[in-house]
UniProtKB/TrEMBL annotation:
<keyword id="KW-0732">Signal</keyword>
<protein>
    <submittedName>
        <fullName>Cobalt ABC superfamily ATP binding cassette transporter, binding protein</fullName>
    </submittedName>
</protein>
<feature type="signal peptide">
    <location>
        <begin position="1"/>
        <end position="21"/>
    </location>
</feature>
<dbReference type="Pfam" id="PF10670">
    <property type="entry name" value="DUF4198"/>
</dbReference>
<dbReference type="InterPro" id="IPR019613">
    <property type="entry name" value="DUF4198"/>
</dbReference>
């Protein structure tokens, strides 16, 4: 697999599909009695429920840098967990395989299941929530993909964000508010600027990979959502 520096025809065709535009992120449970309780959200312009089997991993990072698998409860189409003692939470979500039919319609089937498909894509979503700005917040933690803030965010002040793939900085990755919003590209050092607003922030990034000799899909679309609060 190799990274694509620009959007290719496959990406342009698939951009209209809701499967590609969706993201995954962590939100606190809106209940005064739910201290430390969070929910894994999925969606684009609106949140949606999702099958539990698509949520592949939820990991908790403590203030010493130790990573453990989170225990969560899945109810009413969403995963709920306690992250009261976590500094960060990492999420991996696989949205299946979506194929574009000659009619233009997308169906959740593989290339083998839909031999007439013009293209088939596997959209994978990653989320990272910074819950506490301790010594772990500006470090990388060995994840396959990661966005790492280079300082504690301040509302209205540009923040440098390091974009990594397998621990290495990646150039020309889109970083911004979302797929439909303005973005900056990472430079040679894998750094892009993002200006936080006061309160809860979502920082979106997009990766594209070619996939060779896969019987089920032609490409893998990777979207990432970093969340944090800023003052």
């Amino acid at each position: 697999m190799r990274f694509l520096k620009t959007s290719v025809i496959c990406t342009a065709l698939f951009a209209a599909s809701f499967a590609n535009a969706h993201n995954v992120w962590l939100e606190p449970v809106k209940d005064a009695n739910a201290t430390g309780q969070y929910v894994v959200k999925f969606g684009h312009e609106q949140t949606e429920t999702y099958p539990e089997q698509k949520l592949k991993a939820v990991k908790l990072l403590d203030n010493k840098g130790n990573v453990t698998n989170a225990t969560y409860q899945f109810k009413e189409g969403e995963a709920y967990l306690n992250a009261e003692k976590a500094s960060q939470v990492f999420i991996r979500f696989d949205n299946g395989v979506w194929s574009k039919l000659p009619s233009g319609k997308y169906v959740e089937k593989t290339k083998q299941q839909e031999p007439t498909a013009e293209l088939s894509v596997n959209p994978v979503k990653f989320g990272k929530a910074v819950l506490h700005w301790d010594e772990q917040a500006m470090k990388a933690h060995g994840m396959e993909y990661e966005l790492v803030p280079q300082a504690q965010p301040k509302a209205g002040k540009p923040l440098q964000i390091l974009v990594l793939h397998k621990g290495k900085p990646v150039k020309d990755i889109k970083v911004g508010l979302g797929e439909d919003a303005p973005f900056n590209l990472t430079n040679d050092k894998g750094i892009a600027e993002f200006t936080p607003q006061a309160g809860y922030n979502k920082v979106w990034a997009e990766f594209e990979e070619n996939v060779k000799d896969n019987p089920d899909y032609d490409s893998r679309s990777v979207e990432y959502m970093l969340t944090f609060d800023a003052e």
